[in-house]
Specification:
Number of strands of chain B: 10
Largest interface: A-B, 45 and 59 residues
Strand order of the largest sheet of chain A: 3-4-6-5
Order of helices and strands of chain B: EHEHEHEHHEHEHHHEHEEEHHHHHHH
Distance between the termini of chain B: 22 Å
Radius of gyration of chain B: 20 Å
Radius of gyration of chain A: 18 Å
Order of helices and strands of chain A: EEHHEHEHEE
Oligomer: heterodimer
Mean pLDDT of chain A: 52
Shape of chain A: elongated
Number of helices of chain A: 4
Helix content of chain A: 25-40%
Strand content of chain B: 5-15%
Strand content of chain A: 15-25%
Largest sheet of chain B: 10 strands, mixed
């Protein structure tokens, strides 16, 4: 149900508020908590399923990542498990660094 | 503006262009000087003085057509960037790419320029609106350049402009970009310059904008074979699920973070205003950005927030939209203190995206997590 409320002279969008509260709740779930600690996060499963990098993993970051960052975030044991290719997202002019692994 | 996340300067080293697109917002400048190297050097001095080493600096080389300046100009920029190592400077080119020689690509690779181009869709759609000065189509030249950049490991994104001539071809446009694996930003035509003169041929209504954007959003969001990011959808989702806004056209007081510099060194609010003396803010040859931010012109621009515009104060999307794009707002009658020209369509799109993601947040977070971390930079609407 779409509701609105006035607060401080501005309209508060209850639907957006509910979405943000749910996002906050989801962020505390283990699946997301681990990935949200340092940088990041992942486009991995979605894009993997979609064949962008079939079976692969895509990580995004606001700053360049070290291999150690990547291993910590992914839980992978060794650099040998990864073949990395640098990419970025030029449409956002480079503030997000994207790493693809497969 | 309390917290500065970045400074983005849309630099127009020339207003000249080798193309003559039907919706150009730049064409019509009476003179078209070229930026001198002394002005480039002054720009580096000004932005680094202002930002220090902590705040990212994005220099987006735009035009006109920026490649008309020749490869040596960009080699000089690359060398200046090296000279200022220790500062967080990112150079990007927004180019039609038709003049992209191998020498240019060498410079891009050597100096780590990021590249975005303009493509309106597959050849038959692109060539309707994007022709060169001689009326010749440009699709093959642009796509050839994209292929050569990709072959050298340079990823390329694209901006597509939604106009009257391509608005009925959303499936073809989405299919083309997805197949080509080119990340896409879709901007509505802004009725400035030549586009304003060609209003009959290029203009779309706000509701047409909303309808067509919803179509392409649905195609992308529900496509099991989606291979690309499409904006502004991703940034709108980011605006919704966080309390930050990511793209300049939705960012509160964007003008304090995004400015534009003319060939001679004049400073304007953003690329869309560059050369419009009503919005002149200062000159980097004489002033630093601190002083320019304190100018009366900037003070007026920073008043454009939802609290000060009646229609936005009452809007339930204000927190994710922040009045929309100033350059779009002034298309109506020149007044900045009003909502985005495409407001009605944007509201349709916002509500559609909210309704679509609200029952599916788990999926959204799988691909939107970077937006949860910290705000990013996207000034594609300002060029």
């Amino acid at each position: 149900m779409k509701q609105m409320a006035q607060r401080g002279g501005r309209v508060e969008n209850e639907q957006i508020k509910a979405i943000r509260e749910e996002v906050e709740r989801l962020l505390r779930e283990p699946e997301f908590e681990k990935m949200s600690k340092t940088f990041v996060h992942t486009l991995s499963q979605r894009l993997g399923r979609k064949g962008f990098r079939e079976g692969g993993l895509v990580l995004e970051s606001r700053a360049p990542l070290s291999l150690r960052d990547v291993l910590d975030a992914t839980g992978l044991a060794s650099p040998k498990d990864l073949v990395a290719q640098w990419e970025d997202t030029p449409y956002s002019y480079g503030n997000i660094y994207t790493y693809s692994f497969w | 503006m309390e917290d500065r996340s970045y400074l983005a300067i849309i630099v127009k080293p020339t207003y000249d262009c080798n193309m003559s697109c039907e919706y150009c917002s730049v064409e019509g400048h009476p003179t078209s000087p070229r930026m001198s190297r002394a002005t480039v050097d002054k720009l580096f001095e000004r932005v680094t003085d202002f930002c220090g080493t902590d705040i990212p600096i994005y220099l987006i080389w735009h035009g006109g057509e920026p490649l008309l300046m020749g490869p040596d100009f960009y080699r000089h920029i690359g060398e200046k960037t090296r000279e200022y190592r220790g500062f967080n400077i990112v150079n990007a080119l927004q180019t039609n790419a038709t003049l992209l020689s191998d020498e240019f690509i060498d410079v891009i690779v050597e100096h780590n320029f990021r590249v975005s181009t303009s493509i309106d869709g597959p050849a038959e759609i692109h060539n309707r609106s994007r022709r060169d000065r001689f009326g010749k189509p440009t699709f093959e030249r642009t796509m050839g350049a994209v292929a050569r950049l990709k072959a050298r490991g340079i990823p390329v994104g694209a901006i597509a402009v939604l106009t009257k001539s391509n608005k009925d071809y959303m499936p073809e446009i989405y299919g083309f970009f997805n197949e080509a694996q080119i990340h896409l930003r879709i901007n509505p035509v802004q009725l400035h310059g030549k586009a304003a003169s060609n209003r009959e041929d290029v203009a779309i209504t706000p509701k047409e904008y909303g309808r067509e954007m919803i179509k392409i959003f649905d195609m992308w969001y529900h496509d099991p074979d989606a291979r690309i990011m499409v904006d502004p959808f991703r940034v709108i989702i980011g605006n919704i699920i966080t309390d930050s806004t990511y793209s300049c056209d939705f960012r509160r007081q964007c003008h304090a973070e995004v400015m534009s510099v003319s060939p001679a060194g004049g400073v304007y609010p953003c690329g869309q205003f560059n050369g419009n003396e009503d919005y002149y803010l200062g000159d980097i040859r004489e002033q630093g950005f601190d002083e320019i931010l304190d100018s009366p012109g900037m003070a007026r621009l920073l008043q454009r927030v939802p609290e000060n515009i009646a229609a936005c104060r009452a809007c339930r999307y204000a927190e994710i939209c922040n009045c929309g794009c100033t350059a779009s707002a002034v298309c109506r009658n020149g007044d900045i203190m009003q909502p985005d020209f495409y407001c009605a369509g944007r509201r349709m799109l916002f509500q559609h995206i909210i309704d679509t993601i609200q029952d599916n947040l788990h999926k959204v977070m799988q691909f939107e997590k970077p937006l949860l971390q910290a705000p990013g930079v996207d000034v594609s609407a300002a060029v």
